[in-house]
Specification:
Layout (H helix, E strand, L loop, with lengths): L1 H21 L4 H36 L1 H15 L7 H6 L4 H15 L4 H12 L3 H11 L8 H24 L1
Helix pairs in contact: 2-7, 5-6, 6-8
Length: 173
């Protein structure tokens, strides 16, 4: 399978170059123009991403996520959400790598076939790094007023959390 993937990359690059030559376009000039455009986009979203990474680091280091997990545990437990997954539910909208580290911890402590392990796995696959995504896409086109985007995205994340419990319960319990 790796061989096919390696060959397909070479074939795609060759097809792009060949198409440009057939259409009598300056392939290298188009490539450098596209690379410059990508660099400009990267520079325009860099402040948003740097700010978000700094915020996540500060929130994790301060212990706020763990404190919120303890405060929200009665609410989550009332709907059958495993307490072990609460820290992941809180960090997932902010940091994908942070959520992955929490998932690894949940799986190591509880096992992949445990209720908490299954719910955490479904949460990881059915929710989004909302704030990162908003910072990335809105920042790339210089949108500063997000309107209803954040509340709607967080509602979608909450729906993913609730449905992860429902899904695991229906299919595994």
């Amino acid at each position: 399978m790796e061989y096919i993937a390696s060959i397909s990359v070479v074939v795609i690059i060759a097809a792009i170059i060949l198409t440009g030559l057939i259409k009598k376009q300056e392939v290298f000039m188009l490539f450098t123009a596209g690379a410059l455009e990508g660099l400009k986009t990267t520079l325009s979203i860099a402040p948003s991403i740097i700010g978000l990474v700094m915020m996540v680091t500060m929130l994790e280091s301060s212990g706020l996520f763990m404190w919120l997990a303890k405060v929200l545990e009665p609410v989550y437990s009332a709907v059958g959400f495993p307490p072990e997954v609460i820290p992941m539910a809180l960090i997932r909208p902010v940091s994908g790598s942070g959520a992955l580290a929490v998932l690894d911890n949940i799986l190591a402590q509880n096992g992949a076939d445990s209720f908490a392990g299954r719910v955490a796995s479904v949460v990881m696959g059915s929710t989004e790094t909302t704030f990162y995504t908003i910072a990335m896409y809105f920042g790339s086109v210089n949108i500063t007023k997000t309107g209803c985007t954040v509340p709607c995205a967080l509602l979608a994340d909450f729906t993913g959390l609730v449905m992860s419990v429902v899904t695991v319960t229906l299919f595994f319990c």
